[in-house]
Model the fold of this input.
Amino acid sequence: MNHADMIQHARQVLSDNDRGTYTVPTHGLYPFQWNWDSALSALGFAHYDEPRAWSEIETLMAHQWEDGMVPHIIFHQPDDGYFPGPEVWGTGREVPTTGITQPPVSGFAVRRIYDRARDKDLAEAKARALLPKIHAWHEWFYRDRDPEGTGLIALLHPWESGRDNSVDWDDAFERVPTEGVGPFTRRDTTHANPAHRPTDEQYKRYIWLVKKFRSLGWDNSKLHAASPFKIVDPGFNAILIRSCEDVADLAARLGMDEIATASRAMVDKGVAAMETLWSAEMSQYLCYDRCKGELVQSPSIGGILAAFAPIPKARAAALVRRIETLAGSCNYLIPSHDPTHPEFDGLRYWRGPVWLIVNYMVADGFARAGETEIIPRIINDCLRLIETSGFAEYHDPITAEPCGGPHFTWTAAMVIEILNTYELAA
Done:
């Protein structure tokens, strides 16, 4: 498949999953609007339909909660093909949403779309309207998910990370009970191979946390103290820090000085705090279990995704070497867990497979840090996976087997973004 055909196919995927003002990740498996899916998908739209790119993020931010939180799913239309639906979450919103969030990549996406905009007047108007909302979301994170002011925020549910069943959560997840969950029927395994999805035991704990938070009325000022699962994820924090940096830069250019100053302070504190997550032994960042007060000894993609943030150049260089080591144990970069470790599973969601969105963000971070030699390998592996196995949700890093949902929106958006961003041989 040549690059022109690949872009045409990718645009068709976005069109098929377009619901007018928002996209669904894929038909069937994910029938609603997902938070970070939307922000990253907007990058694809921006290359050929700028108004549609802006509307994707506007629709997401229109459902921001009063305290600043932006939910991870918006249930625009009823659909019984997904569990847990709005009746389980019980958040009481006029348009139903979940009560947890996801990686706040919107700040990065808005700045990227603004910088490339052909319609400058439209871009300025949209950015001016969106930046205060995104900044309020960032403030919410540091207020309600970092109550002690460490500079790093904690996740209270694995779904917030976007890396639902990562090995990183295994030990901490054992603290989450399953009593009182009751019977339920999953829908995801009717749309995708159960061998590619989280286990039933994990789902019981996912639902226990939802019920616990619902019992507290979804009061975000109470959830951090009440949760038995409090994990500081370097990848998530890197996305937050990078988005704060992009908001600071764009706000400064637009004369929104208060937002710029506050955002820059968040970045400086966050970058300094990230150093507490560095592991010299594993040559990457690690998660931190806030309940136990110790680092999680798990070599996952979360610690490499930290490259997306403005980390010190020496750390970026070390992460390049870490990826070069991983390349010796797989055929396609970047695996979401170290293939040499026993927990690795190349087919099961975030326990091994390659995700184009992560590859894109890591490559973007390396480009920013001046670590450019590794980028062609990462980007070309993305395109080889598409050529071999199509626009799947994720891929096995050894066999390239397509996994999860097919015809996937953000995979297609990343192909459009990559082919329009990087100089590649046709």
User: Anything to note?
Assistant: The longest strand covers residues 33-34. The radius of gyration is 20 Å. DSSP finds 17 helices and nine strands in the chain. Residues 165 and 202 are 8 Å apart (CA to CA).
